[in-house]
Design goal:
Strand content: 15-25%
Number of strands: 7
Largest sheet: 7 strands, mixed
Shape: globular
CATH superfamily: P-loop containing nucleotide triphosphate hydrolases
Low-confidence stretches: 1-12, 231-248, 253-258
Distance between the termini: 62 Å
Order of helices and strands: HEEHEEHEHEHEH
CATH class: Alpha Beta
CATH topology: Rossmann fold
Bound molecules: guanosine-5'-diphosphate
Strand order of the largest sheet: 1-3-4-2-5-6-7
């Protein structure tokens, strides 16, 4: 009856799941991403009780490409660049269908010059309100093209989120397009960004070479599935107050520069 059993593969050196299998789990989870909803302002967003992870960054920093690479989907984040959605907050659900366990939020890129001033001011308010007030926000991912470094607009954004990061909100700076840097340029960009990230983490990332992909995916999985939490542990904002938007965030893209 019993067939001769095949030799077992060498047992793992320890019982902890390897980094590789953690990355496989994380990437499988990210691949479930699907469009959930889009909203022009915070108060149009549904209230959710699952962890939310927001992606922010200057226009052209590589945010859409990074989201598409992480989710292994060609068009997902480019949906955020469709006419009518460029100034919107776009949400993507994660988890098996019917069992959403986290949400990714794509906030429009800022710093795009050809946007009417009124739209820029409106967007400053939407973005600041979202980042300060969204109660289920678990983490923020700031995309930054290291060839330009952190710009003044990124610094303003850092000021907006700093109080929440100090309260425990997760924060990651992704240095995009790492394939365009030499090894020493990459190392230098990392150390500078670490100084600027104030308690946040920093990773080099390349969509073309897949640098950092597994590491970032695993980090996001860990954020959304904190150890010991039956569901999610959600850092609450310190106040319900909606601040006046800071000067300087220049607003969303008017169109979809590719
Ligand atoms: P977004 O405006 O921040 O969403 O930026 P996009 O994702 O549209 O990317 C802006 C430009 O950077 C596009 O031309 C992309 O092809 C390019 N890009 C994005 N990620 C990478 C990368 O990892 N490596 C390289 N070489 N180019 C990239």
């Amino acid at each position: 009856m019993t067939s001769p059993s095949k030799p077992k593969p060498a047992a793992a050196k320890d019982s902890a799941p390897s980094a590789k299998s953690a990355a496989v789990t994380a990437l499988g989870w990210l691949h479930t991403a699907r469009f959930l909803t889009t909203a022009p302002q915070l108060h149009f967003l549904p209230e959710l009780d699952v962890p939310e992870i927001a992606f922010v960054g200057r226009s052209n920093a590589g945010k859409s490409t990074c989201i598409n690479t992480l989710t292994q989907q060609k068009q997902l984040a480019f949906a955020s660049k469709r006419p009518g959605r460029t100034q919107h907050i776009n949400l993507f659900a994660l988890g098996k269908q019917g069992a959403t366990d986290a949400v990714l939020t794509d906030l429009p890129g800022y710093g795009y010059a050809a946007v009417p001033k009124q739209d820029k001011i409106r967007w400053q308010q939407v973005m600041a309100n979202y980042l300060v007030s969204r109660s289920n926000l678990q983490g923020i991912v700031l995309m930054c093209d290291p060839r330009h470094g952190m710009t003044e607009l990124d610094e303003i954004l850092l000021d907006v989120i700093r109080p929440r990061v100090e309260e425990g909100l997760k924060f990651l700076v992704i240095l995009t397009k790492a394939d365009k840097l030499t090894r020493s340029e990459g190392a230098k960009a990392l150390s500078i960004a670490k100084l600027q990230a104030g308690g946040g983490q920093v990773r080099l990332f390349s969509a073309t070479k897949r640098t950092g992909l597994e590491d970032v995916a695993t980090l996001l999985w860990d954020w959304a599935h904190p150890a010991g939490a039956g569901g999610a542990s959600l850092p609450l904002p310190s106040t319900g107050a909606i601040p006046v938007a800071p000067e300087g965030l220049e607003g969303p893209e008017a169109s979809a520069p590719q």
